[in-house]
Design a protein that fits this description.
By secondary structure, this protein is an alpha+beta fold. It is built from 14 helices and 18 strands.
Length: about 475
């Protein structure tokens, strides 16, 4: 790994240690102020003694005078260091400092001749020596791949990147606050599952050495959360890291954050009301002045209520055939190069839904609830009492992208077992092959009527923050490793 370090900076570390200065001290000086706090003192407090620490991101002048741009989590402040105000040891240390180094400065807060608020240092302490030269802050990292790979550099060289991730954190916290105000309880459920379910997706697998058993990284927390409804906790939610062993795209990452919530004694109409509260709360918390989102050169109002459109009607409009006209659907599938992978009902309806995704979803630009999904593609939802061919389910779309999925939850244990058994023999390769009998047993003890919702936090952040790809809202998206596994 030595080849990744700057040879000049490694030499500087050696020189510092030989002079008795530890480049990475274990203890740091106390009572530091943030740059923003110092600047807030204002002109009336010029002459105040202050203590500040941060990363050097700019340096001007050498010899007996140097100006440094010092950056911390609150912002930037200028430091002026003059030989006449430093000890010999500190002046020698100044000569070894580079951009990227962390230092602690004590000095007097006042203005330069040009009027810029500045800390005139009389003491400097090295906190951490940087062994690589950071990019120029005004340029940052320009290559998207490199930005994602070196996110730690991207964050401290581009203020907008840091603001974006702080905004993502704020919108997540706003969603949490809204749910807590509604008496929901935040919980944690297992990440390692003995069976996988709650979604149609291929799992990642691992092996438990002590128990000698195969486990799966969860593809959804749904079945554990609904067990809590059985247990009497009537409103639950989890910000869950979920894992799906599928492709990468501008909208897909194999590891992502899903909000899932379940509420007893309501239905999917209750989930619509919750979406119409969470989305505006997230939008405003992210720093938007209005309830609007601008994404890929389009701007949408996020002011609720959002319209509702039936799955079958949208299918007829955009796929140009009736969803129940098998011959016409076959023709449309061929036109879009979608094949039916099997001869069972599950394979047929998966192909129908693939056709919906290809023809309808790109048109769903404004916020909309697509309701009345076909029952065969909704095995965890109740069917409509008015039409047993459709489920009480909606998906929430914005910008042609699914952001949320909700059901009136199926709580009939016999019907749930039958649905699981149908999944187990389906020719759909993503259909779960194992029946979760413990979940069926939980339902057999009685689960209250409930509504449930899954909301993709990454995609919600993409749209609200105006990011073209999911990578831009993930601190560390998945990439091929740059280095091998050798020691």
């Amino acid at each position: 790994m030595e080849d990744i370090f700057s040879a000049d900076r490694v030499e500087r570390v050696a020189a510092l240690r030989s002079s008795g200065i530890e480049p990475y001290p274990a203890r740091v000086p106390k009572n530091r102020m943030l740059a923003a706090e110092i600047l807030a003192l204002g002109e009336k407090n010029y002459g105040t003694e202050v203590r500040v620490s941060g990363r050097i991101m700019g340096r001007r002048g050498y010899g007996k005078l140097a100006f440094l741009d010092l950056v911390d989590g609150s912002g930037r402040i200028q430091i002026c260091l003059q030989k006449e105000h430093l000890s010999d040891e500190n002046f020698a240390l100044l000569g070894q400092l580079n951009r990227g180094d962390f230092i602690f400065v004590e000095g007097e807060f006042k203005a330069t001749d040009k009027g810029e608020p500045t800390v005139y240092g009389n003491s400097i302490t090295l906190l951490a020596k940087s062994l690589l030269d950071p990019p120029e802050k005004r340029k940052g990292l320009e290559d998207p791949e490199l930005r994602a790979r070196l996110r730690y550099v991207d964050l401290f060289t581009d203020n907008e990147v840091q603001k974006r991730f702080l905004a993502r954190s704020a919108l997540t916290e706003a969603v949490r606050k809204e749910l807590l105000s509604r008496c929901f309880v935040e919980v944690e459920t297992p990440v390692l599952h003995p069976l996988y379910g709650g979604a149609f997706a291929r799992p990642f697998t691992t092996h438990h050495q002590s128990l000698d058993m195969e486990l799966f990284l969860r593809i959804a927390p749904e079945l554990y959360l609904k067990r809590l409804l059985v247990g009497g906790i009537e409103r639950v939610f989890e910000f869950a890291r979920v894992f799906r062993n599928e492709g990468l795209s501008t909208r897909h990452n194999p590891e992502f954050t899903m909000l899932e919530l379940y509420q007893a004694h309501t239905d999917y109409a209750g989930m619509i009301e919750i979406v119409e509260a969470l989305v505006p709360a997230a939008c405003l918390a992210a720093g938007n002045d209005k309830l609007t989102a601008t994404w890929k050169n389009q701007t949408w109002s996020l002011e609720p209520p959002y319209p509702q459109k039936a799955y079958g009607e949208l299918f007829l409009e955009h796929a140009s055939c009736d969803i129940h006209n098998e011959s016409a659907v076959h023709t449309a599938l061929k036109e879009h190069n979608i094949s039916v992978e099997g001869d069972d009902e599950g394979a047929w309806w998966k192909a129908v839904n693939d056709l919906f995704e290809a023809t309808v979803e790109p048109t769903l630009q404004d916020p909309v609830f697509v309701i009345d999904y076909p029952a065969p593609v909704s095995p965890l939802a109740k069917v409509s009492p008015n039409d047993t061919n459709v489920a009480e389910r909606f998906e929430f779309f914005l910008g042609g992208m699914e952001l949320g999925n909700a059901f009136t939850e199926l709580n009939d244990p016999e019907q749930q077992l039958a649905n699981f058994e149908a999944q187990a023999v389906s020719s759909d390769p993503d259909s779960p092959r194992i029946i979760d009998r413990d979940y069926v047993r939980a339902l057999a003890y009685g689960m209250p009527p409930a509504g449930g919702l899954g909301l993709g936090i990454d995609r919600l952040a993409m749209v609200i923050l105006g990011c073209d790809t999911i990578r831009e809202v993930l601190l560390f998206p998945h990439l091929r490793p740059e280095y091998g596994a050798e020691a």
